[in-house]
Write a structure and sequence with these properties.
Flavocytochrome C3, Chain A, domain 1; 2 domains; 16 helices; globular
Length: 564
């Protein structure tokens, strides 16, 4: 059993002023929600890196919304359900697609410049979409444009206090209610307690638990791990989406090549030059991502190559220059020409379909704790996310959270603030087990907190081995023996007391990565079928009779919920 807190709250060196709302994360979900809420109250944004370092920044392809006839929300709805392979919550999908056009209007109002063609917003197609409905900006720099404008807008608002270089450690709770956040001020090396009756986790993804990922270094699953330790429900976490087309640069780094390139007509070829998606799916290269990745893995094994080719040589150079300037530039740095050369690509961990279980208003099972964006499991994605539905999901369900918190504030009892401050103060000053109601654990010595671990000297090697194991045993193709092996290794680390009560960012992130990995493995062992982004070689078929249901994990129990 994991401890409730990875650092004992009694080591806090400062208790901050009460804030009505704290947002953890600074991507599209966190920033857009904070901006809305700030119209009424002060909001704190805690982000462990710079304000713009988020998965949103790296979203090349675009954002999905049915804004132009003959497309409409119902077509978007059916495409999303189809991609989700039976595990989408229909009502969550309906909320997503019906409100998507409104979210686009709001983005335009704050200055987002989507690409224009012949006087109208330019739309393209991606895998799984039956109509062009992907809006993009700067060709293939959509995430960068959105993040830049949201950051600039947020900084201009007096009611938003931004705390960069703050690593959120845990959610503070009392009697199944949220009372704030414990955070490590990385600049001052101080542990701080931040009281609040409303906390929104918008901390992004978990890609760093794998060797190859499109995610930035900050994507270590912190929000999901914190929520789990606090007692929140975690849903559908076994469904990890791998992006099909990732390019390895000369310096060994990974660069995502947008699915929009295939949307404009690029082909996938095996290492002998054969188009292998023909005949595998009616939409060939534009099949849903899980199908494309599965076929890529088969072909790579058959040809004994660790890559396939992405071929855009037949597309007009004028189109490529307008739509994909960033990709062209990155390839040029690596001696390649998108118009003339076949590009070696392979799959990499990209997006988590599941996460912290919420209702349709973004609420978790802990009062006052909300989640949105990739950290959340709203039910909209099911077993496989439809391309470019992620950014719009963060906007839509962030908007739902805003409405819910506004309703709470209108009904707020003035005694709540005082009660929250009282409970947080108790957590920050408790000794031993004298305040059981605050869940204060036995207090280690301060010498124990500051000691140098032998593990710190080898942490990079340990993390490297862990990520390799996750890729091999809990990656694209899984089986029970490998999952059990992974579980045993993860448990051996999680049970190592040396990891806890350490003010070391890398060690703290490793605990969170282990926690998320443990949840993925546990859910993957339970789901004895292959569906969407969860593929098992020992159970290769989809089993609607027994497994058309969600897997939900908490610290105390495991249960299943039927779809719909």
């Amino acid at each position: 059993m994991l401890p409730k807190y990875i650092i004992d709250p009694s080591f806090s060196q400062e208790i901050s002023e009460y804030t009505d709302c704290i947002v953890i994360g600074s991507g599209i979900a966190g920033l857009s929600t904070a901006i809305r809420i700030s119209r009424h109250i002060k909001v704190k944004i805690l982000t462990k890196s710079s304000l713009s370092e988020s998965t949103t920044w790296y979203a090349q392809g675009g954002i999905a919304a049915a804004i132009k006839k003959p497309d409409d929300w119902e077509k978007h709805y059916h495409d999303t359900l189809k991609a989700g392979q039976g595990l989408c919550d229909p009502q969550a999908v309906r909320i997503l697609v019906q409100n998507a056009p409104r979210m686009i209007e709001e983005l335009i109002e704050i200055g987002i410049n989507f690409d224009i063609s012949e006087g109208e917003i330019s739309l393209t197609t991606e895998g799984g979409h039956s109509y062009p409905r992907i809006l993009h900006a700067g060709g293939d720099a959509t995430g960068e444009e959105i993040e830049n404008k949201l950051v600039k807008y947020a900084k201009s608002i007096d009611h938003i206090e931004i705390y960069p270089d703050y690593l959120a450690l845990d959610i503070l709770t009392h009697n199944k209610s949220c009372i704030g956040v414990m955070a490590l001020n990385l600049d001052r090396d101080k542990i701080e307690l931040h009281p609040s009756s409303n906390v929104i986790i918008a901390s992004g993804g978990i890609g760093q638990i794998y060797e190859l990922t499109t995610n930035p270094p900050v994507s270590t699953g912190d929000g999901i791990a914190m929520a789990y330790r606090a007692g929140a429900e975690i849903m559908d976490i076994e469904f990890v989406q791998f992006h099909p087309t990732v390019f390895r640069t000369r310096d060994g780094k990974l660069f995502l090549i947008s699915e929009a390139l295939r949307g404009e007509g690029a082909y996938l070829r095996d290492c002998h030059g054969k188009r292998f998606m023909l005949g595998k799916h009616p939409r060939a290269e534009l099949a849903p991502r899980d199908i494309v990745v599965k076929e890529m893995i088969k072909v790579m094994k058959e040809t004994k190559c660790d890559f396939v080719y992405l071929d855009a040589t037949h597309l007009p150079e004028s189109l490529l220059k307008v739509r994909f300037p960033n990709i062209i530039s990155k390839l040029k740095e690596n001696g390649l020409d998108l118009k003339k050369d076949l590009i070696k690509v392979s799959p990499a961990a990209h997006y988590l379909n599941g996460g912290i279980k919420t209702d349709y208003d973004g609420k978790t099972n802990i009062e006052g704790l909300y989640a949105c964006g990739e950290a959340a499991a709203t039910g909209a994605h099911g077993a496989n996310r439809l391309a470019s539905n992620s950014l719009i999901e963060g906007l839509v369900f962030g908007w739902k959270i805003y409405k819910s918190i506004l309703e709470f504030l209108n009904e707020k009892n003035e005694s709540i603030e005082g009660e929250v401050i009282k409970r947080v103060t108790e957590l920050g000053s408790c000794m031993g087990e004298t305040i059981k109601e605050s869940n204060c654990s036995k207090r280690p010595s301060r010498r124990e907190l500051s000691r140098n671990l032998a593990l710190e000297d080898e942490i990079d090697t340990v993390i490297h081995n862990f990520r390799h194991m996750m890729t091999e045993r809990v990656g694209i193709l899984r089986e029970e023996s490998g999952l059990r092996e992974a579980e045993n290794l993860i448990d051996s680390y999680l049970n190592d007391e040396r990891l806890y009560n350490q003010k070391n960012k890398k060690v703290i992130e490793f605990i969170n990565m282990l926690t998320v990995a443990k949840l993925i493995v546990k859910a993957a062992i339970l789901r004895k079928e292959s569906r969407g982004t969860h593929q098992r070689s020992d159970y290769p078929l989809r089993d609607d009779r027994n497994w058309k249901k969600h897997t939900i994990l908490t610290k105390d129990k495991i249960y299943f919920k039927n779809v719909g």
